[in-house]
Design brief:
The chain has about 150 residues and is α/β, with parallel strands linked by helices. The protein is about 50% helix and about 15% strand.
Length: about 150
C-alpha cells in the first residue's frame, strides 16, 4: 500500500471533488478510483457515520437530496473503504475534547473518525485546527496533490 495505507478525506473534499472536475479535490478522488478512473494511489478511505451524515447534509443543502445520495453511492462504488463502526466507543474522549475546547465542536467527531480509523493522512480545506492535536499528517488538497500526486 505504500506511504498512505489509510487516509481521511473531509466532507469538503468529497463535495468539491464531485462538483468541480478541475479542482484539486477531484484530482485526489480520481487518483483513488473515483469516476471509475484507474486508482493511482492504493489506500483505504476512512468513512464513518458522522462523515456520511455531513456529506449527505452538505450535499443536500447545495445540490438536493438526489445528488447527495449519488455522491455517497459513488464513494461506496468506486473507493476502497475502511468504515469506522458506530460501535467504537469514543464518548469519553469526545467529552474531554469538548471540555478542552481545542477544536471546534463540529470537528470533534470528524477528528475522532480519522483517529480511530487509523488515518495516516487527513485531507481538508478548512480543518486547520485539527492539526493542533492530530498525530497524523494534515494537508490541504493542494498540499496533498503536490506531495503525493506530482
Amino acid at each position: 500500500m505504500g506511504l498512505l495505507p489509510r487516509i481521511f478525506l473531509d466532507t469538503n473534499i468529497f463535495i468539491i471533488g464531485d462538483a468541480d472536475r478541475q479542482s484539486q479535490a477531484s484530482l485526489i478522488l480520481e487518483a483513488l478510483g473515483y469516476r471509475a478512473k484507474p486508482a493511482i494511489l492504493q489506500c483505504e478511505i476512512i468513512l464513518s457515520d458522522e462523515l456520511v451524515d455531513q456529506i449527505r447534509r452538505v450535499g443536500k443543502y447545495l445540490y438536493g437530496k438526489d445528488k447527495a445520495g449519488q455522491i455517497i453511492s459513488n464513494i461506496w462504488r468506486w473507493l476502497d473503504i475502511f468504515y469506522v463502526p458506530s460501535t467504537v466507543d469514543w464518548n469519553e474522549e469526545k467529552v474531554s475534547l469538548i471540555q478542552a475546547k481545542t477544536i471546534p465542536l463540529e470537528d470533534i467527531e470528524i477528528y475522532l473518525s480519522a483517529k480511530y480509523g487509523g488515518a495516516n493522512c487527513f485531507v481538508s480545506e478548512n480543518r486547520e485546527l485539527i492539526k493542533a492535536i492530530a498525530d497524523f499528517e494534515c494537508l490541504t488538497a493542494a498540499e496533498f496533490v503536490r506531495k503525493y500526486l506530482q
